[in-house]
Design a protein that fits this description.
It contains 21 helices and 16 strands. The protein is of the alpha/beta class and about 600 residues long. The two termini are about 40 Å apart. Bound molecules: arginine (ARG).
Length: about 600
């Protein structure tokens, strides 16, 4: 996807630079598109607000970069003195191979802060002709436990959906729960032959997940014993009934599957996750074999040792079996059919799969098969891999019994938040506000905790750390928002003419404006790299800088009414940026905290 030139500060300057450069080097052909990407933000503000790296230009002019930088600086200074029309920058200076620009407070306010205040800045399209995209995420298996690990996938996918939509990319969100397979058979086997517990009247989904874990452990214990063969026979009978949609186990499957689905839906509702379309493994399953047979009949697949599939050896991906010699399909078979449906039934041009890193080879094979089957969308299929979530004492396992069920985690977090932060407001706030704020803060803690780490890196789940109000956490950013809200409430009595930023000249004020003005480029970067952690880092910087600004640039005690209003406008813009940014992570804000 091609990024648009949405940054007004850079766009204006690129245009101004272009006019100056071609007035001097008359045979240079230069466009705004050429210059815009050469404008960057220097590491320290003392060096300027924007820097123009002259390397490509120096190459064209066959001169050394520092010399060219000096010449351009002199040219711009000269034009600034002569020109009757004002230049956008205040001051220009060369440092080595860079030409550095400084802007005035009112100019930064007009260009960067006003669009945030009016909301127009949040309505820009960030990419050119974006393809119709499907993002598939959160594909938990029914009958198993939903644990903290599943939350990473859900948060990543949901945030990518929100970010892409924000950037103007048309998105269809989808999920693909695994409601068939051996895990289901194991769970039903245990229920029928080994379970002693009564079925609870509430919390059936979680209970079912525990039954699966017990099944798994018991089957492991039976391995190598005379029981093993017997188990295997029973499991395959169960699978057959589910497949043929008949018999006692089919009925049990239907009933128990719904328990898991109800639990999934409760959790999606709690975290405000919505899917435009639900695919089910059970639904794709039967058609997938037919589809593969059709491709084979069309000569698109080959036979090898009785199996049917695609030879991917020249890509070092081996032989991808799609139909075993017994006529059964495999996981890849379902993914071929699923992809076909996505492309054909929803006119999908780009397809993203949020699935953990263990499935990397699987998706390479599937995408390679799709390409050879002639799907042009195959080049725009992308597996967003992510790493695991571990507990401070290591990986989660049913054997160790240290799996943290999601529902339990949610309840624990909410009680922790109430006890530690909200109970003190019991006499002032309504019970409803306490409850809803507890839920908003818990969501902030979980989602931010899951998203702030690069998807490639492991997450160590630590509830206390994630709930800290004074660190790199969701509640910290939410608290920053609530704090700006309370500042604005405090000063909202004074009614004044609209700010123009005329009084803003302190370094921290300019720095805050520059940072707020980065919102869209940060969002675009997160979309391009599939990394919501870019958004987390950015919001953390905004929250920290605002708090520094608020200490050093007092609002109530500002030297003039004009300055006070300008600073209040900056506070307002900060509030908008925090709120919009958190929303793109799927996090809501509390009005007070
Ligand atoms: N349900 C699968 C699992 O838990 C993940 C499905 C991923 N999506 C896909 N299209 N294969 O491993």
């Amino acid at each position: 996807m091609k990024k648009l030139l949405f940054d007004c500060l850079k766009h204006n300057l690129a245009d101004e630079l272009r006019r100056a450069l071609i007035s001097h080097w008359t045979d240079l052909s230069l466009t705004i598109e050429d210059l815009y990407p050469l404008l960057t933000i220097p590491p320290q503000q003392e060096m300027g607000h924007l820097a123009f790296g002259v390397f490509p230009l120096a190459k064209k002019l066959r001169s050394s970069p520092p010399v060219i930088a000096q010449q351009i600086t002199a040219l711009l200074q000269q034009r600034q003195q002569q020109s009757s029309s004002q230049s956008s920058f205040d001051r220009v200076q060369s440092i080595g191979p860079y030409v550095n620009f400084f802007f005035s407070g009112p100019f930064l306010f007009k260009t960067l802060v006003e669009p945030v205040l009016t909301g127009a800045g949040f309505k820009q399209k960030l990419f050119e002709s974006a393809p119709q995209t499907m993002i598939e995420f959160s594909q938990p298996n029914t009958h198993k436990e939903l644990h903290v690990g599943h939350m990473r996938n859900a948060c990543l996918g949901d945030s990518l959906v929100r970010l892409n939509r924000y950037a103007g990319v048309p998105i269809i969100s989808t999920t693909f729960p695994g409601d068939v397979g051996t895990h289901v058979a194991k769970c039903l086997w245990f229920l029928k032959y080994h379970n002693q517990e009564p079925i609870p009247s509430v919390g059936k989904g979680e209970w079912l997940g525990r039954m699966y874990s017990k099944a798994h452990l018991l089957l492991e214990d039976h391995e190598g014993t005379p029981e093993e063969a017997n188990d295997r026979e029973k499991l395959s009978a169960i699978l057959k009934q589910i497949e043929s949609r008949s018999g006692e186990f089919y009925a049990l499957w239907l009933e128990t599957r719904q328990w898991s689905i109800d639990l999934m839906k409760d959790i999606y509702q709690w975290c405000h996750i919505k899917f435009d379309h639900w695919y089910w493994e059970s639904d794709v399953d039967s058609d997938s074999v037919k589809t593969v047979k059709k491709y084979f009949a069309e000569g698109k697949l080959v036979e090898s040792e009785g199996a049917i599939g695609m030879d991917l050896n020249d890509e070092n991906l081996g032989f991808c079996v799609l139909l075993k010699s017994d006529g059964n399909g495999l996981y890849s078979t379902k993914d071929i059919e699923l992809a076909r449906r996505k492309f054909e039934e929803h006119s999908i041009e780009r397809s993203v799969y949020v699935v953990d890193m263990r499935q990397a080879l699987h998706f390479k094979q599937v995408f390679a098969c799709l390409k050879r089957l002639g799907f042009k969308q195959a080049d725009q299929c992308f597996h967003l891999q992510y790493n695991f979530v571990e507990l401070p004492d290591g990986a989660m396992s049913s054997r160790k019994g240290n799996i943290v069920p999601l529902i339990q985690l949610i309840h624990q977090m909410e009680s922790h938040v109430k006890e530690n932060y909200l109970d003190r407001y019991r006499s002032e706030w309504t019970n409803d506000e306490i409850e809803s704020t507890a839920s908003v803060i818990s969501q902030g803690a979980i989602k931010y905790g899951m998203l702030k780490i690069d998807p490639n890196k492991k997450i160590v789940f630590d509830m206390a750390e994630w709930l800290k109000i004074d660190g790199d956490s969701g509640p910290y950013i939410q608290y920053a928002y609530a704090r700006v809200q309370s500042i604005l409430r405090k000063f909202s009595g004074t009614n004044i003419p609209l700010s123009q930023g005329d009084y803003l000249k302190q370094s921290l004020e300019l720095q805050l404006m520059m940072l707020l003005g980065q919102f869209n480029s940060q969002m675009a970067q997160a979309v391009e790299t599939y990394r919501p952690n870019v958004v987390c880092n950015y919001l953390y910087e905004v929250a920290k800088l605002f708090s520094q600004f608020y200490h050093e640039c007092p609002i109530g005690r500002a030297e003039s009414e004009g300055l006070k209003q300008d600073r209040l406008a900056l506070a307002k813009a900060t509030r908008e940026v925090l709120k919009e940014g958190l929303a793109l992570l799927g996090i809501s804000v509390p009005e007070r905290m």
